[in-house]
Input
Amino acid sequence: MSFPERRLRRTRRTPALRELVAETRPHPSDLVAPLFVREGIDAEVPIDSLPGVSQHTIASLKAEVRRLVNLGVPGVILFGVPEHKDAQGSGAWDPDGIVQVALRELRDDLGDSIVLMADTCLDEYTDHGHCGLLDAEGNVDNDATIELYARAAIAQAEAGADVIAPSGMMDGQIAAIRAALDGSGHQGALILAYAAKYASGLYGPFRDAVDVQIAGGGDRKAYQQDWRNAREAAEEIRLDVAEGADMIMVKPAMPYLDVLVAARAEHDLPLAAYHVSGEYSMIKAAAANGWIDGPAVALETITAIKRAGADFVLTYFAAELAEAIV
Ligand code: PBG
Output
């Protein structure tokens, strides 16, 4: 019997046929590795809730970035863990803050062989754990905060960052950072906007990694997005593009593929997705229990994020996947 439905199963018959018709192929060059660098330690510290990921010393960070370059991963994004936190998050914008020191070392060591991105936010550096400055009532002060983001962006660009990635979800942060970069001779520095960033429960392991507890058991719902809303994400992304973002990002990734698909349909700028710490740890934990095949699920997941429209993916699987793919 002959019927048109056979067409689809025929194309799946052999590995070579499947390879021929594959629409999406994740490649090491689609991946960006998030890395943590901690001040004041002399050996790297594994992060329990992020199996396989560590807080790095400058030396172990350099070794890890060299390994990623050799694997064909084109970018890393740095997060700092300072020795001392304060109310203003001064480690974020201090020229001698840990991320700025790390950027200078990596640039010296590796030249332009890697894209150096820096997360631009205050939460890793504030003693209250919020992404911005607090006013007298304990609320995050939007306009005072973006002035400090602008200072942090200049310090990061000066230290060698190619890409400034503001993650704090303050209004006007992209315009403020663009003006600061242009006004300080850093017209070539790009901005990757965490444009649609949700107040997700999936950032838990990351907060262990950067040692952040939000004061008073608080949350970020007054500045990060409500996960019930998708049209609002489209509006957030439009604003960031209008303010001058060079690249846009959706975060987290898997529960927000609808947001990613919509962003892809509307925008032709480079589009990224952040497969966040909790998404990674869920896969690692289930795999450690023998409940799923971890490497297979990792590949399926990152492929799906690319299929939905991401040009590149920030993922803690970067090294592992790059090794598996090539
Ligand atoms: C804020 C920031 C966070 C993440 C990236 N940048 C935490 C937050 O918003 O609370 C989370 C990334 C992850 O979970 O992997 N500086």
